[in-house]
């Protein structure tokens, strides 16, 4: 690389990191928490609720899993204004990502709940618990341990998927990279730099995930 290119990389590092810390990570955390709540609700409805409600939850999962996330973001940000609903980039991104996490996460939560042996239910019923009490006190805590690895993978994927928010003008890390490219005319350098930062975030999160899995594994063994 030339001295100019090296200087461009160094000058762009802090703006990219700042965008990642101030915009990408908060968007990821908010969307994941809301999506996880939605995933638990959808999974419980699909397993135990009234049949029409199960159909609604199944339809939601089918729609979200069957359409591209980018299209969903465009519908929320660019499509809803045509019916009088105008949202800023941040709430649009949160809605889009949360719905996506909720749909995919509901499959993980549902499978985790179903993996708990029926004897756990029977034991809860034998001491006088209702189905809701058994689910809340016995089943969900055990299912949470089972779901940690796939949910951890979903969280890491969400960090990378937030780059799609650039398409709806949200100023996250990839969008900031696009702005820097427009000034420097160095797309290869800047986009590679963005990719390296995403890789660093994912590597740290993967390490934390492995630590959590080991801790849960020791706890289960005990």
Automatic annotation (TrEMBL):
Instruction: Please give the start and end residues of each transmembrane region.
Output: 20-47, 59-80, 188-208
**Which ranges carry the ABC transmembrane type-1 domain?**
21-209
Q: Which GO terms describe its cellular component?
A: ATP-binding cassette (ABC) transporter complex
One Pfam family this chain carries?
A: BPD_transp_1
Annotated signal sequence range: none
Domain of life, per UniProt, equals Bacteria
Q: How does it sit in the membrane?
A: Multi-pass membrane protein
What family is this protein classified in? Belongs to the binding-protein-dependent transport system permease family.
Which PANTHER family is this protein grouped with? L-CYSTINE TRANSPORT SYSTEM PERMEASE PROTEIN TCYL (PTHR30614:SF0), MEMBRANE COMPONENT OF AMINO ACID ABC TRANSPORTER (PTHR30614)
Q: What is its main location?
A: membrane
What does the organism's lineage look like at the top? Bacteria, Bacillati, Bacillota, Bacilli, Bacillales
One annotated GO molecular function = L-cystine transmembrane transporter activity
Keywords attached to this Swiss-Prot or TrEMBL record, sorted alphabetically, are: Amino-acid transport, Cell membrane, Membrane, Transmembrane, Transmembrane helix, Transport
Localization per record? Cell membrane
Name of the molecule in the record? Amino acid ABC transporter permease
Listed InterPro entries: AA_ABC_transptr_permease_3TM, ArtM/GltK/GlnP/TcyL/YhdX-like, MetI-like, MetI-like_sf
Q: Which CDD domains match?
A: TM_PBP2 (cd06261)
Q: Which organism is it from?
A: Cohnella lubricantis
